[in-house]
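Researcher: Checking consistency across runs. Here is Phosphatidylglycerol--prolipoprotein diacylglyceryl transferase again:
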Amino acid sequence: MNILNYILWNVDPDIFSIGPLTIRWYGLLFALGFVFGQRILTKIYVAEGRTEGDVDVITLYMIIGTVIGARLGHTLFYAPDYYLSNPIEILKIWEGGLASHGATIGILFALWLFSRKQKFDYMWVLDRIVIVVALGGALIRMGNLMNSEIIGRPTDVPWAFEFVRLGENPVVPRHPTQLYESLSVFALFVLLYWLWSKYKSALPKGLLFGIFVTALFTFRFLVEFLKENQEAFEDNLTLNMGQILSIPLIIAGLFILFRVWQNPTPALPGGRLPEKEKEKRKV
């Protein structure tokens, strides 16, 4: 007989409802990522000679890039047959289905557009934005925990969670992988923010971005060994889809860190481009 007292997790994903409107923990935490992120990014931008207006614009790019990228990533990486046969379902974001790897691609593309339009140094933008993206990622994983989704494999560790809302009978203790990821990404946020606050523009271009991408997706790759697969087709794969998609991002992060180590180049204050580069973009 098992005498361990596991953590009973039976949180209602809905906070409250007013008529047809339902406020959910996931949506609240997702939104708070942008609210807190905007405040922190404003502090960073103002400290380096930019304006709050720049933050308002980049926040809009971020929201659009995150939502579109995360949704398309889920549809293409995890259930392409279903969504290609039912394209209208792609628009039903409220029913769930967002992929962090897709969000990464969407954010990178949105910020590239932002940098081109506003004449920012792209790598400077990425180095600063990953600080708040890390915080947002930690909050989103907490939202997954509140939804009792993206669950871990069965385990007998004393901190295992029993996810009552899965409807298992009997309830199976599982790794709280959402919590593992949330805490690890929050620790990454603390590290990145500390590095920026201590060194600011003296940091070599690409260092913060390289650290973020390498650390985030290395941990993601490892924690996937403790997760249940999200889709049935992954059961036939040696590595699941999350791990497969993480590998090229880990390689990219290591390559950026290697380039930084080889040729550390301090960022220009405020992410300003060299004059020659500005002239090229005007042509």
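Researcher: Does this match what you'd expect to see?
Model: One thing to look at in this run: Residues 7-14+21-282 form one domain.
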